[in-house]
């Protein structure tokens, strides 16, 4: 008997990758259901980027004590503050666990748009330095794709979402389809020239490549430089799924978007060897419903997608769906980041900036590019910027009285230039997500248990981030150089990757070269879970390109009745 | 939060963008309509009259009135009361109140009067002693109380609507970013 489907495709998650899957699948003519665990977002009501501190009771001051009652984890993210906390989950309703000695920060957004509302918007293509790294040094498993496989899909994504950036011609950081770059400050421009000269062109500081529009693009307005993109954007000037991919999908009339729909389990038809659909719990009524489709795309974020697979057990897959390799949940990674240095830059006292640039500077990876580093494998990029201190300095400096007040009101403080590293983390089988047998979320779904730890390669890289940045600051002409050691736990960078990695052969991974599950051919995983390594670049553009590529593959197979 | 104002402004922005108008042309009335002053008002919550008096004296010593308002002019003291009452944990609140008492005890021991009653050089000596602890470790409870208080005073003052809007003239929607602008000199105090 022929299987009856509710939809051609189901996409779990409505964020960065879910939005892309929805767009690509619906534009190909597939009737597509997008499931979102959280509620709908109305930009006019919910985006709060223009709210000023004096409009909220505590004026965004302090350590967020009142918010910690419901969001003890989320408030450790810079964006989960008095104004923007609505975009972060209630930790009491969404528990997860980890060993006491291995803290893990899991910052989550459950709403239509997911974390695309709050993401950092930095976008950098990977190169073959990254795709070949696992094969060359033996850590992790080889990627089943190379840069040439993804390059056209990077372009496809970039042309649609709009990326501002400068073309630099670096092999390790390929140029993309860029809109005009944002300006550097006078300090950054000078530092770039001095660093290039001092390091013979090996260390290059460029303006950040950001999914923020510097000109009107695809019906979205150019940035108005108000600053806090992480609180939303009424003009949709930075990329998020709400203002970009989901409207495109909706325009096809092939999209059904169901909010408040918590995916609890993928249902598996053992006879057909296929996913039958998704069992969903209504977040408000707790009603249980199964939606059936020919193909399912998991785009729920790395840990959520792996959790869903681990919670989808059957006689065929007693250890989690699509887990014949035994690697499901393993090789979980994040970028380790934050260590660096800062310095004072004199000679620019008559200069300041106007507007709030939602972007910074980027120093392309220079370690293990042309020669091996003696202390660690792989590498890191650096992100930072320059600014003059403002009245905030008065809160901790000595002084009081009329001159003190005048200084804080009218005299900008000294310029400082700083940057910190975003480092590649080696894949390790013991860095994993599993299911905690004793903890469930508000909807009765077993919770994730994280055990992810930094190891010596990451530690060595973090030390080098500080000394290398201090060298660059010195070359730039800075004084009062201060090292910034940072020890964020895994997860804190919000670049969770791995757990259902792509692989060349089915015995060492969960997904093939098309993000298709080796074991279940109508299942695709295209969020961070699919990653076989982290590189050092911010990963979202790579997730988007992989998603678009996987959708194209799936649609082709479906048209040929091969799925 | 004044939702109606927010929506009006946002609709305006949306329409401007749809109409292709420059955001730099946002009319002044829209700026003026944006938001309300939330500088803290109403009856004191946790801080008693003596504590409020001491905080007010210190606040106006740190940020006195000139041709710009003083800290108390802009309601910094009631805002601090909001923080102490609603924001601080019970433990932190108790410590802060103890530290305020330690500050007054120090003044009493050093100069024979509580802080609010000190004048001239005696007041200056107490303030200088407290202020020297800013940025330093190993603070006494009195110094710790002052450092915390100063942070709140400075923060409350500079985030107030009058400072942000009337003195800094913060442009919420700049419409452009320029990384290299000449600093304009000012004669205000």
Supply the number of helical segments of chain B: 8
**Tally of helical runs of chain A:** 12
- The shape of chain B, in one word, is globular
- Give me the secondary-structure category of chain B: mainly alpha
Proportion in helices of chain B: 55-70%
Q: Beta-strand level of the residues of chain A, as a percent range?
A: 15-25%
Structural class of chain A: alpha/beta
- What is the mean pLDDT of chain A? 97
| SSE succession of chain A | EHEHHHHHEEHEHEEEEHEEEEHEEEHEEH
Low-confidence stretches of chain A: none
- What number of domains of chain B? 2
Q: Which value, in Å, is the CA radius of gyration of chain B?
A: 21 Å
Shape of chain A: globular
Outline the biggest β-sheet of chain B.
Answer: none
Oligomer: heterodimer
Report the sheet-strand fraction of chain B: under 5%
Fold and architecture overview:
The complex is a heterodimer of chains A (563) and B (189). With 563 residues, chain A is α/β, with parallel strands linked by helices. Chain A has a domain at 163-238 and 336-423 and 454-489. Chain A contains twelve helices and 18 strands. Chain A has helices spanning 16-27, 43-46, 65-68, 128-131, 133-137, 147-161, 186-198, 245-251, 302-310, 402-410, 456-476, 540-559, and strands at 7-12, 32-35, 163-164, 178-179, 205-207, 255-258, 261-269, 274-282, 288-298, 336-345, 351-354, 361-363, 380-388, 415-423, 432-440, 446-451, 479-484, 523-525. In chain A, strand 8 (274-282) and strand 9 form a beta hairpin. The longest helix of chain A is centred in the C-terminal third of the chain and has 21 residues, at 456-476. Chain B folds into two domains: 3-36, no CATH class; 49-165, no CATH class. Chain B has helices at residues 3-18, 28-32, 49-62, 76-87, 90-111, 120-131, 141-158, 161-167, and one strand at 178-182. In chain B, helix 3 packs across helix 7 (141-158), helix 4 (76-87) crosses helix 7 and helix 5 crosses helix 7. The interface between A and B is large, with 59 and 69 residues. Strand 11 of chain A pairs antiparallel with strand 1 (178-182) of chain B, so a sheet runs across the interface.
